[in-house]
Amino acid sequence: MTRIEWAEPEDTGEILTVQRAAYVSEAQLYGDPFIPPLVESAEQIRKVIETGVALVAREGERIVGAVRGQVSGTTCRVGRLVVAPDAQGRGVGGALLTALHHEVAAAVAFDLFTGHLSEGNLRLYRRHGYREIRRERMSDHLTLVHMRREL
Predict the structure, then answer these.
(1) Rg of the chain over all Cα atoms, to the nearest angstrom
(2) CA 52 from centre of chain
(3) Measuring CA to CA, how many Å separate 29 from each of 23, 33, 101?
(4) In what helix (H) or strand (E) does residue 29 lie, and over which residues does it extend?
(5) Which is it for the CA torsion 56, 45, 135, 109, positive or negative?
(6) I want to staple 147 with a disulfide (CB 3.0 to 4.6 A). Which of 2, 77, 114, 130 is the partner?
């Protein structure tokens, strides 16, 4: 049984571990081992937990996923939705998105981005009401797909 809870500062190390494990496939997909989620520090994650919206998915005591939200006005920017590789495909990512939408109920829009080759991510976001609003070419091998969910 998966429970969604607010992240605590003591969850930092486990969130970092899940994040790195989850983003290895993205790094391979885009041929870049230095993508921001793989080089983010524990201190940066701890700061988000202490100052923003950070949720975790737990199975027993183990963290199997996490998501962050940063609110600006009536918009919530969704970031670092991660699911441990062995927990992917079981609805954890969708449960985290739904919980974030609920926790930031005052937001009238949710924005996020993902890479153009990340088909699984794109499908997940579309299933949860996100629509592509623009593309941003970052390099020869990466175009960011910006998406929005409006209420």
Answers:
(1) 15
(2) 14
(3) 10, 10, 28
(4) helix 12-30
(5) positive
(6) 130
Q: What is the pLDDT of residue 140?
A: 87
Average pLDDT over the chain, rounded to whole?
A: 96
Backbone angles phi, psi at 76, to 5 degrees: -110, 125
pLDDT digit string (tens) for 107-124? Answer: 999 999 999 999 999 999
Tokens of 32: 């870049």
- CA distances 138 to 46, 67, 143, 145, 151, Å, are 28, 23, 5, 10, 29
Pairing outcome for strands 75-83 and 109-115: parallel
pTM more than 0.85: yes
Distance of CA 149 to the CA centre of its chain: 15
**103 class by beta-carbon count within 10 Å (0-12 exposed, 13-18 middle, 19+ buried):** middle
- Count how many residues are written for the chain: 151
d(CA 141, CA 138): 8
| d(C-alpha 28, C-alpha 30), whole Å | 5
